[in-house]
Structures are given as C-alpha cells and as structure tokens.
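// run 5 | inverse folding | seed 20
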C-alpha cells in the first residue's frame, strides 16, 4: 500500500509481522496490530519543514489536519484519499475550566470541532481511505455513538454502505441522529458496547465487511494527528502533560504512538507525560494501573459519559505501552466530577460532551493530588462537541440527574415567566 517508506503490520503483544496490504485486525496470538514503518529512512528536520509548508493550505488532501502529516499516517497519492478536511481544530486557553482545575497554563484542544463533531473523524478519514484501497463496498463498526456518526459520514462521501452496531438503551441522541441522517444501517443490539464489539468482529469476518473500529490499525494512524497538530500549534514546544479520556483506549494509544514517532525522528526532544482518565463506572485500565493487576474487563460498565461506557477495551495493551513510554498515569473520575467539570468547560464558552470533560475533571484531580503541578503546561483533549448530548446538559442544568446521583452544582436553570416586563425585572434581579 505504501510505496516509498517500507511499512508493515506488527503485533503489539508478540511483535509478529504481517504484510500491510492484506486485511487483518488481530495477530494470530490475539494481540492488536500496529502499523510500523522504517523511520530510519525519514529525515525528521525535512519532514517538519514539509509539514510547516502545508500549514494553512486552502485546498487539497494535505490541507486536512490529518493528511498534512501523511508521511507518518499513510503515504499514498492524494487522489486516493477520502477526506472531509478534518482536523485543523482550535486549541483554546481553558479559561474558567483552567481556574477550576487549578492550572495556570491549561489548553483545551477541541476535537469536537471536527466535521462530524468528534475526534473520530481523524481516524475515520484514514480508515475509510484504507477501506477504499482494499476495495471494500461495506464498512461496519460497533459504537457508543461517535464512531458510528463519523463512519456513516465518511462512507456516504465515498459511496460505501455502512452498518452500525449500537448498544440498546442510552446512546446520546445527537450521535444516533447523525448515524441515521448519514444513511448508516443502524442495528441496535440487545447488550452493551462490549457485546456489540464482539458481534461486529464476527459479522465482518463472516460477511466480508471491512471493520472500522479502532481495532483497525489504520484508524489509530489517523488519530495520531491530534498530537502532531497540537505540537505544530505550539511550534513544536512540548507540553508537560496531555490529559485525555479513555474508553476503548484507541485514542490515547494513538497519541503516544504518534509522539513516540516524533521523538524517534528528533522532531520533538522531550517526552510529555500522558494522563488517561476513565469514568469510575467504566474503569478497567484504572483498576489495572492502580493495583498493578492483570487486565480484567469490567462487567456492566455504566456512566453518564456514554461515549466511554466500555468495560472491555480492545486497545488496553497499547494503552499500557504508551503509559510506560510517557511515564504516564491513569486516573478515574466520578459522575459528579465529570458533570461539574463539564459545567465549567461549558461555562467557559467552549463546551464539550460529558466524556470529553473527563480531561478537565481528571486534570483537576491530578493537580489536587500533587501529581500535576499548577505551573505545568497541560493540554487537555476535548473529544466531542457539546451538541452531541443535549440531554446531559439539560438534565444537569434542570437538576434532574439526582436519580443518577448527580447534583446540578453549577446549574443554570431556565426560568418560566409571564410575558410581562415586571416578570422580566424580577427574573433579572
Ligand atoms: N470521548 C468521546 C467523545 C468518545 O466518543 C470516545 C469513544 C472516547 C472519548 C474514548 O476514546 O475509545 O479511543 O478511548 N467513543 C467510541 C465510539 C467508543 O464508539 O464512538 P477511546
């Protein structure tokens, strides 16, 4: 598939190698696969200059915030790329959310500003491009919502059929709406995300459908671009920390893989620490990390941050590898902590969906614990748009989440008043 720089698939568990141009998601040993390339053939300084020259391009595949870095993503001719000019997302000073977290130098990289409103578009542009190269006509995924919204969109622009497996019960409405709107064949299954993940793997194998979950190594390659773009926005000055939510654990694995490649190429000369934040009710990585225990899935995961309601993440082994490389940490946050942090991200005028706000809730907790110092430079990744999950916002601000044990601590409730001046005066007092 890639011509100039030799690349291959390699098992993250046993290092067995496979050809890159044959469809494969797992090693014979069951381990997840990485795309590997021979970095010794790449001149880091020259590559950085190429990327700088592409910054701000108005059109073409390399104007995308993913394909700008295509040499380390998937080095193919531009005309083969399926893109919505994704990436190029803003990075905001955290404002009130920074004060809340107790950080002086806190930036929020808003991946919710991608075309379909989440970071998934970065992986999906690469995944659907690979699907096309493999001549797939149908793609599928299991999803807590954002992956399906993204996949349905990218399948639509590239004339592929998309089949979506979502867990019954709560997936955020904005995400379900997108999947339906973009024409994804949406199958709601009796079971949770982990069940859907198992089923979709079986379906793809049996029905010869291309699988676009983050178990697909090309998805991870695209998602590396979040880190690349943050670094470029910072003129390659490395922050002390990245703080990122963890669900199926693809995104943090992509972040560490990408940063490691930059480090090996000498494009950065310092290794940032990575903090992965999980919800208390869906915390297999946290348990493993905290207790120095073998991996064990969490049964019946539950959290208001439905995006990360995952008990059996496929990329846990890659996540651990990245944490070790970056001297990272794993933290967990409660439902109340997630929603209060979200209220702060929202009140700062930035806004993000609940799972995203684990970054801020987790940063605060790590500052309080003395693990992150208030002066350190921290980049929090906001993974999804505030409009993805309006129910969570309204529930919090109307203080209707008590049944889930969540108080509307910073609620901004709407008032119902008479259409009269006096009533307005009273309300504005
Ligand atoms: N934040 C949001 C908004 C997400 O949608 C997800 C994952 C994550 C964080 C966690 O990222 O899985 O790479 O650790 N959502 C997937 C989905 C599972 O189906 O949309 P991860």
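// decoded
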């Amino acid at each position: 598939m890639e011509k100039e720089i030799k690349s291959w698939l390699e098992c993250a568990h046993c290092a067995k190698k496979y050809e890159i141009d044959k469809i494969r998601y797992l090693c014979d040993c069951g381990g997840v696969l990485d795309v590997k390339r021979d970095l010794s053939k790449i001149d880091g300084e020259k590559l950085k200059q190429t990327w700088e020259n592409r910054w701000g391009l108005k059109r073409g595949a390399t104007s995308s915030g993913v394909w700008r870095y295509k040499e380390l993503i998937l080095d193919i001719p531009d005309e083969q790329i399926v893109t919505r000019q994704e990436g190029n997302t803003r990075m905001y000073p955290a404002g009130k959310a920074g004060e809340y977290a107790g950080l002086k130098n806190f930036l929020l990289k808003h991946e919710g500003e991608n075309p379909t409103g989440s970071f998934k578009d970065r992986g999906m542009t690469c995944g659907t491009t690979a699907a096309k190269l493999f001549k797939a006509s149908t793609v599928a995924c299991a999803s807590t919502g954002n992956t399906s919204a993204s996949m349905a969109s990218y399948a639509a622009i590239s004339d592929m059929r998309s089949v979506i497996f979502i867990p019954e019960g709560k997936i955020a409405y904005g995400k379900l709406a997108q999947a339906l709107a973009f024409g994804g064949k949406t199958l709601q299954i009796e079971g949770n995300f982990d069940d859907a993940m198992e089923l979709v793997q079986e379906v793809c194998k049996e029905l010869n459908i291309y699988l676009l979950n983050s178990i697909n190594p090309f998805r991870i390659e695209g998602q590396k671009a979040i880190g690349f773009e943050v670094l470029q926005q910072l003129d390659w000055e490395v922050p002390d920390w990245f703080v990122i939510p963890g669900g199926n654990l693809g995104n943090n694995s992509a972040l560490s893989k990408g940063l490691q490649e930059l480090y090996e190429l000498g494009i950065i000369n310092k290794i940032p620490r990575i903090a992965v934040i999980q919800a208390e009710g869906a915390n297999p990585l946290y348990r493993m990390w905290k207790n120095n225990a073998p991996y064990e899935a969490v049964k019946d995961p539950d959290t208001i941050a439905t995006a990360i309601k995952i008990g059996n993440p496929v990329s846990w082994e890659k996540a651990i590898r990245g944490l070790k490389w970056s001297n990272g940490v794993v933290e967990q946050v409660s439902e109340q902590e997630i929603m209060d942090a979200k209220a702060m991200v929202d009140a700062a005028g930035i806004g993000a969906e609940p799972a995203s706000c684990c970054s801020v809730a987790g940063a605060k907790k790590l500052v309080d614990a003395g693990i992150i110092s208030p002066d350190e430079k921290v980049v929090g990744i906001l993974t999804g748009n505030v409009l993805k999950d309006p129910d969570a916002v309204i529930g919090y601000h109307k203080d209707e989440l008590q049944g889930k044990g969540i108080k509307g601590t910073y609620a901004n409730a709407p008032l119902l008043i008479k259409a009269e001046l006096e009533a307005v005066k009273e309300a504005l007092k």
